[in-house]
Amino acid sequence: MSLALAARDVVVELGGRRVLDGVSFEVGRGEFTALCGPNGGGKTTLLRAALGLVPLAKGSIEVLGERPGRATAAVGYLPQTKSFSGSFPARVVDVITAARRGAWPFRVSGPERERAREVLARVGGEPLVDSPLGGLSGGELQRVFLARALVRDPALLLLDEPTAGVDGRGRAEFLDLLAGIAERSDLAAVLVTHNAAAVRRLADRALYLDGTLRAWGAPEEVLDREWVGTSAFSGHDHAAPVDARCEDA
Amino acid sequence: MDGLVELLVSPLGQGFVRRALAAGLALGTAGAFLGVFVVQRGLGLVADGLAHATFGGLALGLLLGATPDRAIWIALPFTMAVALGIQQLRRRTSLGGDVATGVFFAVSFAAGVMFLGLRGPRGVPVNVEALLFGSLLAVSPEALGVVALVSLLVVSVLLRVGPQLAYATFDAELARLSGVRVEALESLLLAMTALVVVVGAKTIGVVLVAAFVVIPAATAQILGRTLGVTLALAVAASLAGTAFGLFASYHLNVAPGATIILTLGAFFFLALVLRRR
């Protein structure tokens, strides 16, 4: 099986602290992998290292056979925290077209608008195409950024707590969306989540990361470990006290 | 109606007014275009800081024996060095951009005051008021050439790198992932801001030049829904404000820098009112 992502003995140090220590794993093409673990366990750092946004102190990461940051056109990324400028005069169609072009569009062509509509339709966001980005709800914003991640037909999708900031109903709908996307046989995905239901429903494999890789295997195998259930899952992303009990959303 | 047209056109019979209008329109176009990116990146205060750093640069040029017209060639590298200093301080320390700018702003201005004092009695006489508030109506053909060249250069560069710069302005991290060289573009933006501010400081003055960059862009930001529309509105506001302010200054017999900035300020408040509707 050819690999979408391969991490070998990865060490990352940030601000003098070792955040990842000797992490090795592989994600095959077409495989959906859930990355779980407590807050501060290094999940987001690992995704950012795979994107080339965080330097490695030791080890190596290959993304679709390339060094981090080299295969960006074939990688779709949905960040946990949206860092865009809220005052920037951006419409949804501009954001999606910018991801496709790699540059901001001063004018969006007919085919580009059509492509934006098409990819928004896949995530149930077609009516948002001309909406100003600043007026969207948390759930709408996640749909738009998922559409943005999909616009170049990526071979690898990196999803960092995609249901963070989304209400209960929105979370369920978003999981349906991800399930539909996961059905595409050639698309590999790494999903960072605190949602046990998402892991059970979507993932082919789960990894449990707490600085080091402490468990990996089939989702049920990882979730059923006693120490996992009480430290990493709250039922929804990015809103959990560390010791919350595992509950399905 | 004819009377109004006559009122507007009559000053253009004089060469110095035509030169002032041409310099103002050129500077207004470049300043507004640049300003949209400067304001969106939250660097409005940096533009103000660089304008005050220009005072230090001009004063250094005078201390070194340059004439007031030629002192901008000393002020230019001085102000660019300050721009890069602000950028490095923002990147390498936890200090915010406002703090970095505040430090360089005060130090450069104080250095300018010291340089003027160190010139001694044999230095070229300098009108400090003209340095601070400019002299748009006294723009020489040579100075107009410099303003036109700088404006053309800035607009050309922005048209070339605008889409990448805009992406980096929207979200630096997403732009970086698309291969945009975010840090290099920010350095380029600051260097161009320094260039416009130095040339503008000579014509409309140190105190007012930052407003030329910030106010039209801020006005356009209130009304524009897309970046293209925002850029067009900023340039239109700047051109209209410059022309109206210049003619008003001629008829009121007051400094044109002040009437231009007041007109731009009026457009800004009008935009706020229009947005509420």
Describe the structure.
Chain A has 249 residues and is an alpha/beta fold. Chain A has a domain at 3-82 and 154-229: Rossmann fold (3-Layer(aba) Sandwich), CATH 3.40.50. Chain A contains 8 helices and 9 strands. Helix content of chain B is 82%, strand content 0%. Chain B contains 12 helices and no strands. The A-B interface holds A 51-53, 69, 72, 77, 79, 82-85, 87-91, 94-95, 98-99, 101-107, 132 and B 40-41, 162-164, 166-167, 169-174, 176-180, 221, 224-231.
Could you name the ranges of chain B where pLDDT drops below 50 across 5 or more consecutive residues?
none
**Average of per-residue pLDDT values of chain B:** 89
- Radius of gyration of chain A in whole Å, from Cα? 18 Å
CATH architecture of chain B: Orthogonal Bundle
Keywords, please?
heterodimer, A: 249 residues, alpha/beta, Rossmann fold, three-stranded antiparallel β-sheet, 8 helices, 30% helix, 24% strand, disordered C terminus, B: mainly alpha, 12 helices
What does the secondary structure layout of this molecule look like, with pairings?
The complex is a heterodimer of chains A (249) and B (277).
Chain A (H helix, E strand, L loop, with lengths): L2 E12 L2 E12 L3 E5 L6 H8 L7 E6 L11 E4 L13 H10 L8 H13 L15 H13 L5 E5 L7 H15 L5 E5 L3 H7 L2 E6 L1 E6 L1 H5 L2 H4 L20
Parallel strand pairs in A: 3-7, 3-8, 5-6, 6-7
Antiparallel strand pairs in A: 1-2, 1-4, 8-9
Chain B lengths: L1 H8 L5 H26 L3 H20 L8 H21 L4 H22 L9 H6 L7 H30 L1 H6 L4 H23 L1 H18 L3 H26 L3 H21 L1
Helix pairs in contact in B: 2-7, 2-9, 2-10, 2-11, 3-4, 3-5, 3-9, 3-10, 4-5, 4-9, 7-9, 9-10, 10-11, 10-12, 11-12
In short:
By secondary structure, chain A is of the alpha/beta class.
